[in-house]
Write a structure and sequence with these properties.
There is one protein chain. It is elongated and about 80 Å long. Helices cover 66% and strands 0% of the residues. By secondary structure, it is mainly alpha-helical.
């Protein structure tokens, strides 16, 4: 009996020592720090975007108080500034896309903020259909609740919230919406009065209301996402933070591989074409800034923070060279975008081919389209 007890006690001590060694393993600790740092960097990105949204709202107030061509130009620039800041968050959006069931709450946030595949006529008049859209449908009372209900009502392209609904309202179908589409109308004709219309039913006034509501709801949704991200007990945060660090690393590796090897090359191929509707900013243009912001976001995710993630994905010998290649690619892409605007695309095509090579080096294996794990 004593011998049995002694043996069991020795085994218990051995197990405890092994467990303690694992818990105190420096590599395990580093992996926890690195993968948690990724989440903290995502929070910093959201804080900066939230600040940009406040600048956008302030510029909107100035414009609606006195609509002018100059005011509309300034408002559009604030949209670009805010949207570009948001695009630095693209790697975290890709993380959610890579595991849609696991990150379902996060994807719902993103659908409200950045749904870009939209039907323009769902919001306002388009060529050949001058009386279509929420702007012209006076049966839809313009309130925050109603606008949220209309978003993705029967199809994912029925977009009434977020950056790209706002983009369409500001630029219009052809990217040339005039400022006087937002001029307040204070008088109503006898014919309109006989039809039972009020000034609030007129397209210009509804468009002004819709523009203000969309901007406010965007700011609200960014704030809500930031709060959920900041709260470790929220479903959004727990979906990531409760994963074991090795699993976090596995998902991040897969996400970056898909983003660099597949998503961005495909988007750049579309950008090189002439079909503006395939571009990320199909109404505002300036899509090149979207790609530059995405790659800058990738660099931030991998190289910033107390314990950079890149050190977990590559060796100390290869990490600096990989980072230099990414920085050179960003600089080259910036130049190629200018070349594309001047009619050339050869350099852009060459750089597009470099992205999968970066992905292969980062992942340690050829890129593929591995399905989501259950």
């Amino acid at each position: 009996m004593n011998h049995t007890f002694a043996t069991a006690f020795a085994l218990l001590i051995t197990l405890l020592c092994c467990t303690s060694a694992i818990a105190n393993d420096p590599s395990t600790d580093d992996l926890e720090k690195a993968t948690r740092s990724v989440w903290e960097l995502g929070l910093q990105s959201l804080i900066q975007t939230e600040q940009s949204s406040r600048n956008l709202s302030a510029q909107l107030d100035l414009f609606l108080a006195e609509p002018t061509a100059t005011g509309l130009t300034q408002l559009r620039q604030e949209w670009r500034n805010c949207h570009q800041q948001w695009q630095h968050h693209a790697p975290w959006m890709a993380l959610a896309r890579s595991q849609p069931r696991h990150f379902a709450t996060l994807n719902r946030h993103y659908f409200s903020i950045d749904a870009s595949d939209l039907q323009p006529g769902y919001l306002d008049a388009v060529q050949g259909y001058p009386f279509t859209g929420i702007v012209n449908d006076i049966s839809i009372v313009l309130t925050a609740d109603n606008l949220r209900q209309q978003h993705g009502l029967t199809d994912h392209r029925e977009v009434s919230l977020g950056f790209h609904a706002l983009e369409f309202l500001l630029w219009g179908e052809q990217g040339e919406r005039p400022f006087n589409d937002f001029t307040a109308i204070t008088d109503i004709s006898a014919e309109q009065n006989a039809a039972g219309l009020t000034t609030s039913d007129l397209p210009n006034n509804r468009r002004r209301t819709l523009l203000r509501l969309t901007t406010q709801l965007l700011a609200d949704d960014l704030q809500r996402l930031r709060q959920d991200w900041q709260n470790p007990l929220s479903a959004t945060s727990r979906s990531y933070l409760q994963l074991p660090p090795p699993r976090r690393l596995e998902i991040l590796r897969h996400t970056l591989r898909e983003l660099l090897a597949l998503e961005l090359p495909d988007q750049l191929l579309q950008f090189a074409g002439s079909d503006q509707s395939a571009h990320h900013n199909q109404f505002a243009g300036d899509t090149q800034q979207h790609y530059l912001a995405v790659l800058t976001g990738v660099e931030t995710l991998l190289t910033q923070g107390e314990s950079p993630l890149l050190n977990q994905l590559l060796t100390p010998e290869t990490a600096p060279d990989w980072q230099r290649q990414l920085q050179n690619l960003i600089a080259g892409l910036n130049e190629a975008m200018q070349e594309k605007e001047e009619g050339g695309t050869s350099k852009l095509a060459s750089l597009r081919e470099q992205l999968p090579l970066l992905a292969v080096a980062l992942a340690g294996e050829p890129a593929d389209t591995t399905a989501e794990r259950p």
